Amino acid sequence: MKYCLLFFFLLTSVVVAVGQTGNPSENVVITSEKKKTKVHTSKSGALQVNVSPKDAAKFKTAGLVSYRDFGAQGDGKTDDMDAIVATHAFANQHNLRVKANEEATYYIGGKERTAVIQTDTDFGTAAFIIDDTEVQNREASIFMVSSSKQAFNPTGINSLKKNQAKITISLPEPCLITVTDSTVRRYIRYGLNQNNGAPQTDIFVVDKDGNVDINTPIIWSFDQITEITALPIDEDTLRITGGRFTTIANQAESKYTYYSRNIAIRRSNVLVDQLEHRITGEGEHGAPYGGFLNIRDCSHVTVQNTILTGHKTYRTIGRAGKLVSMGSYDLSVTRALNVSFVNCSQTNDINDRTYWGILGSNYCKNLLYDSCTLSRFDAHMGVANATIRNSTLGHMGINAIGTGTFTVENSTIRGRSLINLRPDYGSTWQGEFVIRDCVFVPNGGRPSTASLISGHYTGQHNFGYVCYMPQRITIENLHIDDSNHPEDYPGPAIFADFNPEMTDNSYREKFPYVKTQEVILKNVTIASGQKLRLSDNPFMFKGVKVITEQ
After folding, report:
1. pTM here?
2. Which domain holds residue 282?
3. How far is 404 from 386, CA to CA, in rounded Å?
4. Which of 8, 18, 40, 351 has its Cα between 20 and 30 A from that of 457?
């Protein structure tokens, strides 16, 4: 009987481990034999964890476990990754909180192992050293915050319409729906990192009756759907608190081999609070990073009171055969909804151009910076609705394409422009800009000719969609600090020269640009004393109505 129960326990343990990670190489087998609690690696590479019945009862009574309970040394030298993985695996199985040991320093070497977090975790004042100098698998996360709920593929949905309010589906609970049409290409990139685009994709929230959340609208029409996934949304908030993380940077060749030795968040309703991440050991070369906090395929994630670090910028040969700077991120958000960064800052100077901008995002909806001091906000392959408030942005400023409303309020922007519409994705924003109570310091105070809205669009490249400028731009209570300007400075412009070749009616766009209809100005002050101009290219923007209110 004893061996039958043991076999059953082993079997269920393996099933749980596979469900947590989806990757057999990261399986954890948990037993409860009458031996001491011990963690070791089997010949197959699986992690074998035995928890004595006495310890198991003690942990369950306390409602929490620590890394020391599973053998972590915390001396900053011994690799504690196996103990960390084992701790979380046991905690997940019994719904226990995890608490790091105060003042411990956990060393994490290059072994391919991922700790799956499914319960509240308090890293506290503990330090974590992540050594990336010799890594078995650069794509393996250190921590994976995941749901215990399982994704599934719903049937019966063959097409969708843009802004469709309801889909014909019945679900067990509210879900995150991800759809793809691999036959349609969007975001066909232009420039030095040119590519053939990506399959059309969208992500949105529906309730159990199929009603689409009005805050996460369907932004594309799908004549057909080649893939659809539903992930039930966790109602309770999972909290991750504290932690002093230091990455010893990789010394790899400078090319697009991104490192993902990070905290990956793949669960909805997550709060990250009071975390710190620093970087050391960056040399003359290195591969880029895909975000120490990597948020993907989820909704309602808040990162607050957190300190991050910009990565050194390295260069490589891009797809066009020319030297390019590689994006390297401490924050990465992909196909995620309702993601907020509140009271976040970075350790290095937000105006130091030797460090890449701290955030990169794709396919997102409802992104927020509130009370942040960071080097950049960036939406590569589109964001639907974004807000920056009470914040200061550094040398890379605001870069975005997307839809809906982009609001910037009570903030200081120190980029080359107030908002840059990314030229590599068509300088497109289908919606409006609202800018109020802000200060714009062009080019961080360096001598430059200032423009509020910048971008570039030739009309000769097919991006896979119609490209728009914001239909309406409202600017209220803006101070432009252009006091340090070059000689013969004509004053700031609303629009940069998006196409220097478009100077008369003879220019033909193969893919016409839908330009701004109106700009509303109220209380715009300029340090240089110059007046706000329309553009260096007045012909291109001759149809824009500029309304100055008192």
Report:
1. 0.94
2. 234-321+328-348+359-396
3. 8
4. 351
